[in-house]
Design goal:
332 residues; alpha/beta; six-stranded parallel sheet; six-stranded mixed sheet
Length: 332
């Protein structure tokens, strides 16, 4: 658990602070990072959010998103920030390998490292830890962290907007297994802080490209396979799709959930072919642990009902491996 008194003392005077999150940041990663930025910056701290890679452009509307640095575009300056930092916040990841190659700079920093995360099995690399696998999102933990720092703290609209974005996206709009009582309680408090939930929904879900919509239609019509006998459904996204539909970072977000709308599908898998690797996203219903499947078979992990992994096999070999696993798992 976090030593809040010591951390509060550190933050009493202006500090050089770096906030980072995992590669290819999602809504919870961006939401938690920018929520913390919008809390700390007005207090006089020098704060910079550095993402290890680029992030989807549909997060550009978030408050102060223009202050975020992409490590791949600014490696030298980003490393310098880490070397000089007093405090580094690591949000929404549990292992420094999730920010490679940015993690190399951490070997040369004297900064205090704060880990705030809700994924299973966190590695031991932080001086302060706020970790809870039962949290619906890292944004929930950011809200709780701010309550610990300042029990009477009232969120600004900017902080509220960012926290809500992470809660909304990680709970699948309050529809998946991550949804808990605290998610609704926090959202009610955020509404009192001026949160505009319609504005967030429109920015996230009604601000896309025609190419993305046509890609989704093609994926569901031509690239989705349902194996009711195994209880699985999978969608393949190959390199030809990426070219044909000019796919951008984040365009496949949420695609993996579609097969779960079928009654007899208990596990959905997105199989995404990249240059030298195949990335896998798993989602499940009920008590089926795709985290265990990813951890044991695909060098991955995450949450019980939402996990990811990778395969270095060919595309056909990867599909055969997945089918073989579920022939043995017998989830139906």
């Amino acid at each position: 658990m976090i030593n809040i008194a010591e951390l509060y003392t550190l933050l009493e005077t202006p500090k050089k602070i770096v906030i980072t999150t995992h590669q290819k940041p999602d809504g919870d990663a961006m939401g938690s990072s920018l929520a913390l930025y919008n809390y700390l910056a007005p207090k006089g701290h020098f704060v910079r959010v550095v993402t290890p890679t680029d992030f989807p452009t549909y997060f550009n509307w978030m408050p102060n998103c223009d202050e975020v640095w992409n490590y791949e575009e600014n490696p030298t300056l980003s490393n310098a920030l880490v070397y000089e930092a007093d405090i580094i916040f690591c949000l929404d990841f549990n292992d420094l390998s999730r920010i490679d190659p940015f993690n190399k700079a951490f070997e040369q920093t004297q900064a205090k490292i704060v880990l705030i995360d809700h994924h299973l099995y966190p590695k031991d690399f932080a001086h302060f830890i706020l970790h809870d696998v039962k949290a619906c999102s890292t944004c929930e933990l950011i809200y709780r962290f701010l309550e610990l720092l300042e029990p009477a703290y009232k969120c600004s609209k900017e902080v509220a907007t960012c926290i809500y974005t992470g809660i909304l996206t990680d709970t699948g709009s309050f529809s998946n297994g991550a949804t808990n009582k605290k998610a609704f309680e926090i959202t009610a408090q955020l509404l009192d802080a001026g949160l505009n939930i319609i504005e967030v929904q429109e920015n996230l879900n009604q601000n896309g490209r025609e190419e993305k919509l046509r890609f989704i239609g093609n994926a569901l019509n031509r690239k989705m396979t349902i194996r009711e006998d195994l209880g699985i459904g999978y969608i393949i996204v190959d390199r030809k799709d990426a070219y044909t539909y000019n796919l951008q970072n984040g365009d496949t977000e949420g695609l993996v959930n579609y097969p779960l709308s079928i009654e007899k599908v208990k596990v959905a898998i997105l199989i995404k072919q990249e240059a030298k690797i195949i990335k896998l996203s798993f989602r499940s219903k009920g008590t089926i642990s795709v985290e265990k499947i990813c951890r044991e078979n695909f060098e991955g992990g995450g949450h019980r009902n939402a996990s990811g992994g990778k395969s270095f096999l060919s595309l056909p070999e990867t599909i055969n491996k997945i089918i073989s696993i579920f022939e043995k798992e017998k989830i139906v």
